Amino acid sequence: TDAEVNTRKKTFTEAQTERLEQAERTVLIKCPPKLNEKILLQYLSSHGNIRSHFFFENRGIHALIEFSEKNSIASLQDAVGIPSAEHHVVPFKSRLFTFTLKNPVSQAAEGTPVHLSPQSHIAVNELIQKLSHADSISNQMYILLNEFQLTEENIKLRFLACSLVRDFARAYFPDSMVKPFGSSVNTFGKLGCDVDMFLDFHDVQKHATKMKKGPFEMEYQMKRLPSERLATQKILSVIGDCLDNFGPGYVSVQKILNARCPLVKFSHQPTGFQCDLSVSNSIAIKSSELLYIYGCLDPRVRALVFTVRCWARVHGLTNSVPGTWITNFSLTMMVIFFLQKRSPPIIPTLDQLKELADEKDKHIIGGYDCSFVSDLSKIKPTKNTEPLDALLSDFFEYFGNFDFRKNSINLRKGKEVNKPESSPLYIWNPFEQDLNISKNVNQPQLEKFVAMARESAWILQKEEKTQRMINKEPWGLAALLIPFGKSNPSKMKNRMKGMGSETIRSLLDSLKLNNANSLQKAVGK
């Protein structure tokens, strides 16, 4: 839609600022089960104009109401009562309210079912059914994207979750912000993913530089601590305690303060999100912005990333539990790298984005150069018109035959470079150039990925679309989302027969028979 194109063209910072401001004007209301939407909106409108609203299901029906003016919330808060004193309550007045009907019987009769916005994606089995009816693999990929990507409503709910935490942080640090980063904002988030948020004090630092005028050097008296890490731990500890002790709907609050990046984990029942709160991590925010730019440049980028990630999850290549699996972040980087290498390239390399940066885009963080252009209109659109189905097939072909033993993946340069060390999979961190973002991946997991990629390339090449379409059997992408061997075991056996030379080659790869003599002997056998 036009609206989507317009939001896509905003810089990352503009888009975030707008959404944070929106969240400040928003409240969340738990509604009675039988509800007259018109009467509810009429009542709320007495406190001010409503800019937007939607309903969703999460342990009962909730309404997210965005007012046009922030002072409408104060007006509503003045009209709301404290819960009856059968339980002792913590008298913290948040922006979460419960509405019940005064005359449940007569009012409920007037209620009509409201439209509920989905907050989770459909099951893979349902998705396969939908995909089987599509007329091309490219369309299948866009259907998958549409079903899995974050909706406008879900994004608003995520920013509200951050804004509600900010209400607590503000009590101690009036100028602080709580902002989402990672999958909630980088255009690659899937419905149901966690909300990563961070406490940002950067506005406080900007304020400090302004106080240079006049005859005095002026500064606040502040508590001094031996390290930034200790300050971070103390701040998170106190905010975590506040959420745990005073915040309505905050449960399972865990303070993980000795981690490399200290954080507070919690579940926010009213919005239904699992959340991680940390203190400003500038490089993580630059990574979010970089992915946001790539996601906005060409619609094929997100369609291919969502497809590959869904495929990887179905085949057990990724996992929600940390381990030796490939992560979604690594997969996303592999897709971006693959698209940088097309001829002509579909998206620019990070070095090319850096060349387009102007003065305000220059950022050195902890000694690392994190500069790249923020204005999307300065990036020339690609002349590449390859269809998505060809890109998907080529992605599997490319990584099914990639020389992982020798080469690493570098998004700055957009080309394979020799591995600096012997990790099975080496993907350079785009900013912290001495780090491998896939260091956790072991050899068996990488081999499984390669085998699945080859099998998927084979299936796509042998696709008999016409016959599949008549039978409405899973075909194309739908066939790739069924764990291999389950759809038709006999076909699988025949296919394995036809893979003789390919299988020998992969066996040789895995045995690392580099010696020419032993290689010849093995082929002879």
TrEMBL record:
It comes from the Eukaryota. Coiled coil: none annotated. Keywords: Magnesium, Metal-binding, Transferase. This is PAPD1 protein. InterPro entries: MTPAP-like_central (IPR054708), NT_sf (IPR043519), PAP_assoc (IPR002058), RL (IPR041252). Its cofactor is Mg(2+); Mn(2+). Residues 11-79 form the RL domain.
